[in-house]
């Protein structure tokens, strides 16, 4: 079997690299003598001329630094201030500048130049996420004919949204240079096919194949997941280590865990909780919401705004409803270790996973995997998370409708143990069958 060459924006660092993708790809990288390539996270004075090996770890890793200008224009700029909002249905938040696009292309061209000399004829290349859309196009220009796959972790926009992007046609042309394009959900496959056909005049060959001269590419859904069994065991162990107050607390705990990103719908969630408290005075003091949200992409205006809005709303709701014994919303604005999260999921009665738009949402999957099978909590899940296509036994909500979300909160809090177990069984069955190992294997099998 040829080597796997995995390329992502950030390289997993440390002696024991961790994270979802490492779990998914670590074995294949090890078995095939593969290589992972990505940015180091450090800033250099001049653009990187060569890759630097990261010593140690179970597989080979090579990284390079970005300059401050590249970080600002390629990463914070085109990737996170243009593509991210567009791909999450927020074209209104795009901040379009020619310079962002120019540097984005330049960085991708340089990565292609750094990678090409490493390639052997039977290597398979797997490119991760929206930072690297043009990479296959650049590699093809350099004569690379290896199979190249791409996985997009975000949703994909349909033609109407795509029209808002000045270089939408070019983006579709980049995509056509991959042999296989993996998306999170069927909704994204439909949107991507429509965009390729309507924006770039690709011909539809059926069964997910499109032709855009001179290439043909396949677009299909490969919903990403977690190692559900591993997370289940982690939650079991970690639950016992939680401070006694959390577990013995007779009140009901609702939990939300999201990077503080406008796509996650945290303000909408808070408003719906406010609506719930307004309607159900009998629940005051008996339920609280623990929202854990590490800051992310600081310095990008839209992220500063969402932080302010969230702080303002939690303050207002707490001010309105709290009494000397009870605070309705506990808002933690920092990252929490993974194992603590696992224990907290298990201690929670309800999870609020209510993004306005989300590629998949792994918190939904982690929460289910962490539950006690005898007495599981309830997952409230937005219909706009990619996970909704697979997790139909969750309590589905429309995050734009605060009254419906408030009604569902009551349903979740009152749900019988029998129904909770039934829903949990069905969700857990899906999670153990289609876990993260299934995800990487099925993608790589399809890439051939
Ligand atoms: P994200 O937008 O980051 O990922 P998600 O899938 O929920 O969203 O993954 C977040 C991960 O970070 C989870 O493993 C979660 O436990 C962790 N996390 C969140 N808040 C945390 C906190 N306060 N402290 C510590 N850890 C925290 C993108 C896409 C998603 C897609 C994934 C994977 O936006 O839609 O599911 O990639 O493809």
Question: How is the secondary structure organized here?
Answer:
Layout: E1 4-10, H1 20-32, E2 35-44, E3 52-54, E4 60-67, H2 68-87, H3 98-115, E5 124-128, H4 135-141, E6 148-151, H5 159-162, H6 168-175, E7 180-183, H7 186-200, E8 203-206, E9 209-212, E10 215-221, H8 228-239, H9 244-248, E11 252-257, H10 266-279, E12 287-292, H11 301-321, E13 329-332, H12 338-347, E14 350-353, H13 362-370, E15 378-382, E16 395-397, H14 402-414, H15 417-433, H16 436-447
Parallel strand pairs: 1-2, 1-5, 2-4, 5-6, 6-7, 7-10, 11-12, 11-14, 12-13, 14-15, 15-16
Antiparallel strand pairs: 3-4, 8-9, 9-10
Helix pairs in contact: 1-16, 2-3, 3-4, 6-7, 8-12, 8-13, 10-11, 10-14, 12-13
Residues 153-154, 224, 257-259, 292-294, 335-336, 341, 358-363, 366 line the site of adenosine-5'-diphosphate-glucose (ADQ).
Q: What topology, given as strand order, has the largest sheet?
A: 3-4-2-1-5-6-7-10-9-8
Overall form: globular
Q: What summary fits the major beta sheet?
A: 10 strands, mixed
Overall mean pLDDT: 96
Structural class: alpha/beta
Bound molecules: adenosine-5'-diphosphate-glucose
What low-confidence regions span 5 or more consecutive residues with pLDDT below 50? none
- Tell me the fraction of residues in β-strands, as a range: 15-25%
Radius of gyration: 22 Å
Termini Cα gap:
10 Å
How many individual helices? 16
**Extended strand count:** 16
What is the percent of helical residues? Answer: 40-55%
Family: Belongs to the glycosyltransferase 20 family.
Organism: Thioclava electrotropha
Protein name: Trehalose-6-phosphate synthase
